[in-house]
Amino acid sequence: MSSTVPDLGDADQLKALLENVASPEQLRELLDAPGVDDEMIEGFVAAAGAEDVLDKVFGLMGEHFVAERAGNDGGVIRWDVTAPGGTLSYGLVVRDGAAIGERGAPDGPKVTLTLSAPTLLRLCAGRLNGVQGFMTGKIKLSGDMMFGAKLPGWFDY
């Protein structure tokens, strides 16, 4: 992966970039490219397809979940992500040593996080501390605050 700003008009290039992101390191490389700001990220998400981008992100969450860090803790997390075109809801179920992300609002979440697509990508890339994001209003949290505070430590960045 190269550290160049993607051509937002080239759908094939955007799809290839999205397909090649398989780790927080690769996501960081994309976010750290010169000129990448929230507006650029929102443009990328819109051009690549918000659902495709978020499907990829939530799929990768499961791959980068570290079960030992969660111990016996678990539950359902709802993520309401503001993306170009509206808010999309995703669920992340942490249970039996695994984390499984899927599109759609889950039933009975223990905690709900509300954030923008750029904030989610930065959080997943390790470029935004979850507590800092909450304290600055970039991440809104409702439900079990203690559970929500533990979440970032359960993933490798």
Automatic annotation (TrEMBL):
<protein>
    <recommendedName>
        <fullName>SCP2 domain-containing protein</fullName>
    </recommendedName>
</protein>
<dbReference type="InterPro" id="IPR036527">
    <property type="entry name" value="SCP2_sterol-bd_dom_sf"/>
</dbReference>
<dbReference type="Pfam" id="PF02036">
    <property type="entry name" value="SCP2"/>
</dbReference>
<feature type="domain" description="SCP2">
    <location>
        <begin position="74"/>
        <end position="153"/>
    </location>
</feature>
<dbReference type="InterPro" id="IPR003033">
    <property type="entry name" value="SCP2_sterol-bd_dom"/>
</dbReference>
